[in-house]
Amino acid sequence: MSTKEIAGNTVNLTEDGYLTDPSQWTKEIAEAIAAEEGITLSEAHWKVIDFLKKDYEATGTLASIRRINKTGGIPTKEFYTLFPDGPLKKAARIAGLSRPASCV
Amino acid sequence: MKKVLIIGAGTGGTMMAVNLSRKLNRKEWGITVLDKDPNHYYQPGYLFIPFDMYTRRDVIRKGEKYMPRGVEYLLAEAEQIIPDQNKVTLKDGREISYDVLIIATGTTIYPEETEGMLENGWRENIFDFYTVEGAEALAEKLRTFEGGRVAVHVAEMPIKCPVAPLEFLFMVEWYFNKKGMRKNVDIDFVTPLSGAFSKPGTAKVMGHMMEERGINMVADFGTERVEPGKLISYDDRSVDFDLLVTTPTNMGDALMERSGLGDDLNFVPTDKHTLQAEARDNIFVIGDATNLPSSKAGSVVHFEAEILTENVLSYINGKELKASFDGHSNCFVESGYGKAFLIDFNYELDPVEGTYPMPVLGPFSLLKETRVNHLGKLFMKFMYWNILLRGIPAPGLGSKMGTAGKKIPKEPPKSNTRPDLHVVGKKAA
After folding, report:
1. Is there a contact between B19 and B39 (Cβ–Cβ < 8 Å)?
2. Which one of A5, A87, B204, B418 is most buried, by most CB atoms within 10 A?
3. What is the pTM of this model?
4. Which SS3 state, helix, strand or coil, does residue B230 take?
5. Whole-angstrom Cα distance, residue A60 to residue A66?
6. Above 0.95 for ipTM, yes or no?
């Protein structure tokens, strides 16, 4: 774990760059992490991030791609277009949630 | 008379029936096991069928044979679980009331979840080895396969036995080699994961093995659809195949959907330590039917059965549920050429090297490919039918993961599952 300043806030990060405490997250931090990933957040991106955060609050776990589609109403194809190359990993990082744990 | 109802007479349901029949006061408690299939399957054996090493006779027995005396074994299909009324309705209109319900309904493949998979060559040049019929059809296909592009594919996580696709991969490479036709075959491993396996240390070992065997890895492949002879990903990549051996989407029993007890994949939200359903205090869940972040594998079910037996007894006696499952999983990984790996891990600690179950003596080697491990894998069939399923204690197979004989680095390979993420669910009043 390390500490880093992002968008004027000091946050705790895992070694692969995920916030360890979702409560440290701000919209500015999301934009800064998105920029690191080469993504400019549009309304469509925010819809995904909002769903992931709300769902996390309700269930305590990061939604799967299937759940983002089925429950969040975001088509998987669109999700891949919004967050290219590892969409769930990127979206989770931007939303200040943990790295997706692929169930063994 | 009070009742424990177990739905599903697979590995978990049968083990729970055996354990509880010994521990419950039988004057007060009756046990009913409900299943829709008269057969019991030794599922790890499916892997050997495509290579003509096992036939269906090795993997199928009558389920009734394994039911302890005094347990009611009912062959019928459940229509709905109604938790508010503590009862289960059956398709034939009957109803069964319960005091404690144990869900052991497993997971099944759903090829129809992937667009085009059933339409564009199912059981012609697209096969699974997660059903007896699929494994047999694949055996027949392999006997006459003349070469070309073989894709071994995983559609979506989680899957039953996450090492099985890797085992198939290594076995099929060996199979073609033995037949002297390896040079006529290109093998791709197509996975939604970023590596060969979800645990980084193991992924590295398996990835290395794939390189040695000349197997090409296609990672981060989120399968959108299957076209004739072609897999297409959501990010518009494609993999051509002449033969596709797929692990289709795995889902829990549709009964969970009908009963409002399942998640998006019909797995039942379950406390990962106590195995109590989040929905109700008197419902418990075991094995593949849970949403636990552990492997969907027989060894896991075996370890869970020990924990769950203790917790069901505590629940019945009005005591706190003290037994806690640690996510222990123990898997042989058959790698062809008469060898196998063995991995042993839990929620917190990833597989490491060492010996198992005893320090130095082993006889099994962890995260290394040996002949003794392969013999262990083959011996599992006997162990399963005659020891594990009958509830006879097996040495070295305790529910808690041990660390003796393991080479644990100073900074242990932590699982990427963050424990704080698994919030205990809201219990209904």
Report:
1. no
2. A87
3. 0.93
4. strand
5. 17
6. no
**What is the rounded distance in angstroms from the CA atom of residue A90 to the CA atom of residue A70?**
19
* In a domain? residue A99: no
| Residue A30 forms part of a structural domain | yes
Closest CA to B103 of B267, B323, B293, B225: B267
On whether residue A100 sits in a domain, the answer given is no
Residue A102 within any structural domain of the chain: no
* Structural domain range at position A11: 2-94
Whose CA is closest to B279, among B80, B84, B77?
B84
Residues recorded for chain A: 104
Residues B133-144 pLDDT 10s? 999 999 999 999
CB contact (8 A) between residue A99 and residue B416: yes
Contact between A98 and B418 using a beta-carbon 8 Å cutoff: yes
B94 CA to chain A: closest CA distance, Å?
33
Residue entry with tokens 């744990």: A101
Contact criterion met (CB below 8 Å) for B250 and B158: yes
Give the tens place of pLDDT for each residue, A52-101: 999 999 988 899 999 999 999 999 999 999 999 889 999 999 999 988 87
Chain A contact present for B1, CB below 8 A: no
User: Does residue B194 belong to the interface with chain A, where contact is any CB pair within 8 Å?
Assistant: yes
Distance (Å, rounded) from C-alpha B272 to C-alpha B291?
8
Q: Could you tell me which of B64, B75, B88, B71 has the C-alpha nearest to residue B32?
A: B71
Torsion of CA A9, A11, A15, A18, to 10 degrees: -90
Split into its structural domains, chain A has a count of 1
Q: Which residues of A are catalytic?
A: 103
